[in-house]
Amino acid sequence: MLIGRIQEQKELMGAYQAAESKFVVVYGRRRVGKTYLVRQTFKEKFTFAHSGQANASLSEQLFGWCASLKDSGMAVDKMPHSWLEAFELLKDLIRQSQVRKKVIFIDELPWLDTPRSRFVNALEFFWNSWASGRDDVLLIVCGSATSWIVNKIFKNHGGLHNRVTNQIYLKPFTLNECEKYIESMRLNYARYDILEGYMVMGGIPYYWSLLQRGESMAQNIDRLFFADKGKLRFEFNELYDSLFRNPEKYVTIVRVLGQNPSGLTRDEIIKMTKIENGGNLSKVLEELGHCGFIQYVNTNPRKKNGGLYKLVDNFTLFYFKFMSENKTNDELFWTHNYNAAVRLSWVGLAFERVCFQHIRQIKDALKIGGVLTNVYSLRIKDDHGKGAQIDMLIDRADNTVNLCEMKFSNQEYLIDKKDSENLQNKIDIFQKFTNYKKTILLTMITPRGIEHNGYWGMVQSEVTADDLFKE
């Protein structure tokens, strides 16, 4: 059963029904469901389907290509010696096909580009000199190595420059899609537990597919992440190795960002990682952003260039916080620490991150989905050094600002006197710092809402977890 992906399926079918040949690239991080999307959309419509092999030699890749040609019904007399010859065989297969639109699916494309194989040149020649001139070819390529896709396909300055007709970036699931997914698996979790699962695994469908019935969310987390043979215990290295050819610099950057959850400026990243400023750093930051691992957040509405890089990948942050330095070897670590301070301090920051991943749902809950907005995360100080951190600021075009405060609790959140003073301090410092004349609406975002006590009246609008779960 395919959950969500409505727009992506629509775009794929539009390419299939087009009157001319199309070159489609489906990309996104490992385990996000790229292959599943393509296969579920086209099922038995493939004229040719092939997947590259990890860490294989050129001869092994060509052997696999021939095997896929045979599986597609073609008689192959001899092995090709190059990718140019391999694509000539693919042309013969396409010529033999009697179907109206020939769907060619090449999965894990980056793995085919072995050193000195000239694979990209052969792909260019196949598309530019032959396939693009026809009206019956739908070429779909796919790969997890996002840096390779971006640099070798999208930013290609040779024959593939501007040749891709459709770019489909497959995003992780939203909370709504995760809920539908586990319902399809007949798992019966409360939204509070789904929210916690999202804080740990993000919206990566494969991770959610590993949950087992009859276990609590905490038990599942122990089994997958902390058990001796947990299926996700060693996922971190496999994840970054699959996405980046030389992952060391990428891991170095996400590691320092993981140690600074509030974010770092570019200069602070340079200082902490010792990576030289320049194009290479820009490339690494850009590719981490393409993969959804980091996000650039503007922290000063008065400056266009003022901002911080934040690590926003839920799984990576969970790994750094609880797995990379965990020396206890406790296979029930999560269950044993469920009510401990180490988990309770983590859920607050994790909840903030989930809120930033569901800004559209927050805007819809505030009934401002159609209003032009800018979203900031602010760290500010007044002239006397008195500071405040604002979790989320939604600056609206209708002369209004939503100053959002996120608070995680498994029951209605109680605003006490100290909270009230802290919230008012944030409003006062924000007004002095920005000199904004707009209406400021204090907005609380919590899992279960706000308890209506004497301090509740200062809150102008509320958003709950139920709002985050909407489509």
Describe this structure in words.
This protein has a five-stranded parallel sheet, sandwiched between helices. It has a five-stranded mixed sheet with strand order 8-9-10-11-12. Strands 6-7 form a two-stranded antiparallel ribbon. It folds into three domains: 164 residues, P-loop containing nucleotide triphosphate hydrolases (Rossmann fold, 3-Layer(aba) Sandwich), CATH 3.40.50.300; 184 residues, no CATH class; 111 residues, Trna Endonuclease, Chain: A, domain 1, CATH 3.40.1350. The radius of gyration is 25 Å and the shape is elongated. The protein has 471 residues and is an alpha/beta fold. α3 runs parallel beside α4. β9 and β10 form a beta hairpin.
Mean pLDDT: 92
> What is the overall shape?
elongated
Number of helices: 21
Beta-strand percentage range? 15-25%
Q: Strands of the largest sheet, in order across it? A: 2-3-4-1-5
What is the first-to-last residue Cα distance? 18 Å
Indicate the percent of residues in helices.
40-55%
Tell me about the biggest sheet? 5 strands, parallel
- Radius of gyration, Cα only, in angstroms? 25 Å
User: What structural category characterises the helix and strand content?
Assistant: alpha/beta
Uncertain ranges: none
What's the number of extended β-strand segments?
12
Please give the domain count: 3
